[in-house]
Design goal:
2 copies of one chain form a homodimer. Chain A has 356 residues and is an alpha/beta fold. Chain A has 13 helices and 12 strands. The structure holds a DNA duplex (16 and 16 nucleotides).
DNA sequence: CTGAAAGCGCTTACAG
DNA sequence: CTGAAAGCGCTTACAG
């Protein structure tokens, strides 16, 4: 106490200060601070009291050089999709619950995923989470060789060597197809995001396969160039403008695009939703349940996915030899106002007036 | 090369490996890696080549214990406000541009701001950003004594000792009042978020002051309990249900609440927006410019604010003695479809049928 | 410009 | 259970 009282120094209090004040070795302090260090109850109590009194907090950086850093890296690519705010919130909460912290890497900066990975490895993160992007297997392997388990969230990366937690995109596509057909829609279309993404292709594939399986087929498709409202709006506009066969329903890659699509349908063409055009999205973002959109959507259990990702990572930190697992979670469809049709008579349709 | 080739070890390559391979001291390597270390051009070139070949990346944790950590802590409290996804994205981008990284702390976890601060200090972050929350001045001072400059983003914290970058909430309130009055609305109301927040009170105060200054007054107010769609919906519902004087326009604390409000107005009461009820929000979130909401809003220049915050922090890292500055940015109103009225005749109003 | 050495704050075998 | 010592990977005066 005396020392720290009199010195107006800006020095942080270190383990040495605590050791001096408590009349023990720094090793003793280290052990007392660490739950699994051996320390007699009295000594530990005393040391902890002194540490507390001095306001001592271990320097995590110094600790990290020998032991673990308590840092979990998270690579985020999807800053346009509103769903990711909740996902990020859930991730940081889960990570903090494990007494670790989140090193956030924004991969939008024109930085490639590989660069981002190598960057984050400089901090010796204890684990690495990659959201909605794939990572070259060599890279994953390189991380794991350095005892850094990797998890891929929201992408069904086969043979990645990483833990994978995601939903089955084929199943999502089938679910959308079933629902639209069940509701009586007859000319379903698909609007995906970038065709560079496997997820876009997989949802389309599942969608188309199920349509054909039930004797229907795909009545058009479009592509946005990002996961955004504008992209969905634009793609829907183009799809419905093209003179050919007008679809009577659209399955969108995600909700944010679907919201753009709904607005294009309503405001550019004055078609009614769901009577003239049915809409299905994916994600159940906040605005999907708003009165204005009231969007039928396929809901991925994001919170469960996040928690599964984090817990699997921490168990791999404990058991480094364990093989990375794959978890495919199941989604469920939430029916809302954009797909109520069932007993809808074709003759009521505005679209029916157009040459089909 | 020979060593690293033959050893299948998972050891990371360290400065020692590079020194050995390049036949120089580790000090030489350290200097060569550091732009401001003195190193002859040839030596540096050679060392860098070897380092590169070996795939050497300095361990930032080890570096951080003597030098700076290159970590910037960011405390986030607003994971419900969609605007924060873009803000977070911009922050991480700006920080990465400075070759630093983002330590994200979620303060929603029931963790108080003070706890979060002390936590982040264990990582010896080079600077600390606090978004939309205030920090006790003692805490700020404690950080700055340890050479960690603090910035407060989006809250007008007077005498905080921290750098402050925000907008003037009083001015925002006045701007909303002027606009509603200019558009011919006569019974403006205010719906804020938690009354515990100074920002809520300040916007209301500016709003009311300007109304009265122009010979009008506040026709009711409400409170959501969070910054959320549901809170806005609920508060608007209550406000319009209460039998007294029905407001003909509502200024909401932020856009996400305003969107809830619009939907309540339209779907619970079948009032028309903007004819019966005008709506103004704040933030210009993505959905504010959607066709469905088309919300008049007061736009804070978030990107400029973020960049100003980051650059001011980095300049304080360079010049620790410099006094923290205050930057009050100016907002602008974006007029959209929720407030077009001007020449609107009172007799057309649905609301006029109610006893006023 | 360069190397040897001390040191940053912590952890972890190793003896006792 | 405890202390002395070595070590983690790096940086930074200090001599040369």
């Amino acid at each position: 106490m005396k020392k720290s009282e009199t010195s107006p120094s800006s020095r942080r209090v270190t383990i040495t200060d605590v050791a001096r004040e408590a009349n023990v070795s720094i090793a003793a302090v280290s052990r007392a601070m660490n739950p699994k260090g051996s320390s007699s109850p009295q000594t530990r109590r005393h040391i902890l009291a002194v540490a507390n009194q001095l306001g001592y907090k271990p320097n995590r950086l110094a600790r990290g050089i020998k032991a673990r850093s308590s840092l979990i890296g998270i690579l985020v690519t999807n800053f346009e999709n509103p769903a990711y705010l909740a996902i990020l919130s859930e991730f940081s909460t889960a990570i903090q619950r494990h007494n670790c912290h989140t090193l956030l890497i924004n991969v939008n900066t024109g930085k490639s995923v590989s660069e981002a990975v190598s960057l984050v490895m400089e901090y010796h993160v204890d684990a690495l989470i990659v959201t909605s992007a794939t990572v070259p297997p060599e890279l994953v392997e390189a991380c794991q060789r350095q005892n850094t388990p990797v998890a891929i969230f929201g992408r069904n990366a086969e043979d990645s060597g990483a833990s994978v937690v995601t939903c089955d995109d084929l199943a999502i596509g089938r679910m959308a197809a079933d629902h639209l057909l069940d509701q009586g829609y007859q000319r379903p279309a698909y609007i995906g995001a970038s065709t560079h993404e496997q997820a876009t292709l997989n949802r389309q594939q599942g969608f188309v396969a199920r349509l054909e399986q039930r004797g229907s087929r795909l009545f058009g498709s479009g592509e946005g160039h990002q996961h955004s409202y504008d992209a969905g709006y634009g793609a829907a506009f183009e799809l419905l403008s093209s003179g050919n066969i007008a679809p009577d329903s659209i399955f969108f890659f995600d909700d944010i695009m679907a919201c753009g699509g709904i607005d294009a349908v309503r405001h550019e063409f004055s078609y009614r939703v769901p009577e003239d055009v049915g809409i299905v999205g994916v994600d159940d973002i906040l605005f999907a349940s708003s009165k204005s959109y009231d969007l039928t959507t396929i809901c991925q259990p994001f919170n469960d996915m996040v928690n599964k990702t984090v817990s699997s990572l921490f168990s791999r930190i404990q058991h480094p030899e364990a093989a990375p697992g794959r978890t495919i979670m199941s989604c469920h469809l939430i029916q809302r106002g954009t797909t109520q049709r069932v007993s809808y008579s074709e003759s009521d349709s505005l679209l029916a007036e157009r040459p089909v």
